[in-house]
Design goal:
The protein contains twelve helices and no strands. By secondary structure, the protein is mostly helical. The two termini are 25 Å apart.
Length: 332
């Protein structure tokens, strides 16, 4: 048990260090492509970290040789949004409180665009509701509806890339780690650093998930609980790490936008894969995960619309994941 635990901590360390390089690189990529800071976080950063796990989901549902593998893919499509809407926002909230109190600042986020964040959460909730409704229905053309989910994400990307954001630049970019002496590194170097960091994140994330699978039986967790409770935390770790790094740098707006963008990917791309390659029929545990996710998103919408976003408000959604875990244990 000591070896898997050591490897787990090693993988988490590599993920964090790689995320630091990724965040640094993707900011320069966005700058070179004249993309707003918010769109850099919602689209470029979210796409980068979500792409590897989306590929894993695609492999599970398209090439899985038994129903269990396809069920894992469907579970990932529901577990990802659950982990992001509860634990990821809660971790950011706790980090905001600790970071701002350490620096003697109020924990309210005056610079956050609550209107935009609430709009993104409303978009997510609408798409998510359709996604869940399809999981209760069986009809012939259902696989073709996956195209609509991909189209919805394409529309989201187009809208984000055209939106100029608030117009305020949040913080200052650190020198590109691959070229620390260049005041204005080239796009090629920025892309190279970003891609190398993504490869490390992907490999370390797979190692992290593998060690969780090895540790779960040792602590008495059955495979089903591991897939629904622990695996989503592991797969969404890069997004959470990115957000924590931006919070540490004082870029709260980019941190929240990154999670918001990652949620939009999780609502659409894995769902499309699931519709294409599986019957997409959800069981009671997945409906429970969906209900908890929806509850978390509704609470986030109210928090963002209130105009006074605080770290404490964001931290409160974390208890919903605990509620899901307790209910899941009782159901099993």
């Amino acid at each position: 048990m000591l070896l898997p635990l050591f490897l787990l901590l090693t993988a988490a360390t590599f993920i964090y260090l790689a995320c630091e390089s990724f965040v640094n690189g993707v900011e320069w990529v966005g700058h070179k492509l004249h993309v707003s800071q918010t769109a850099t976080a919602t689209v470029l950063a979210a796409l980068g970290t979500a792409l590897p796990e989306s590929v894993v989901t695609l492999v599970a549902v398209a090439f899985g040789d038994d129903p269990a593998h396809k069920d894992i893919g469907i579970g990932a499509a529901l577990g990802g949004p659950l982990a992001l809407s509860t634990l990821a926002y809660a971790v950011i909230g706790w980090s905001l409180v600790a970071n701002r109190r350490r620096n003697g600042r109020a924990t309210s986020l005056a610079q956050v665009d609550g209107r935009r964040l609430s709009r993104d959460q409303s978009w997510f909730l609408g798409i998510f509701a359709v996604k869940i409704a399809l999981g209760a229905l069986a009809f012939t053309v259902k696989p073709w509806l996956g195209i609509l989910f991909l189209a919805a994400y394409a529309v989201y990307i187009g809208r984000e890339m055209r939106d100029p954001g608030t117009g305020d630049v949040e913080g200052t970019r650190e020198p590109l780690k691959f070229r620390p002496r260049d005041g204005e590194p080239t796009l090629t170097w920025a892309l190279l650093q970003t891609c190398v960091a993504l490869v490390v994140i992907f490999v370390a994330s797979q190692m992290f998930v593998g060690q969780i699978d090895d540790l779960a039986p040792a602590i008495g967790l059955p495979p089903q609980l591991t897939a629904l409770l622990l695996s989503p935390i592991a797969t969404e770790l890069p997004e959470t790490m990115n957000a924590l790094i931006w919070v540490r740098q004082g870029r709260e707006r980019m941190a929240l936008a990154n999670i918001s963008g990652a949620m939009m990917i999780q609502a659409t791309v894995p769902t499309a894969f699931g519709l294409f390659f599986t019957p997409w029929m959800l069981d009671s545990t997945l409906f429970l995960a969906a209900a908890i996710t929806a509850l978390a998103v509704v609470s986030l919408i109210f928090a963002f619309r209130s105009g006074l976003v605080t770290g404490e408000k964001l931290a409160r959604v974390g208890w919903l994941y605990g509620l899901f875990a307790g209910a899941l244990v009782l159901m099993r």
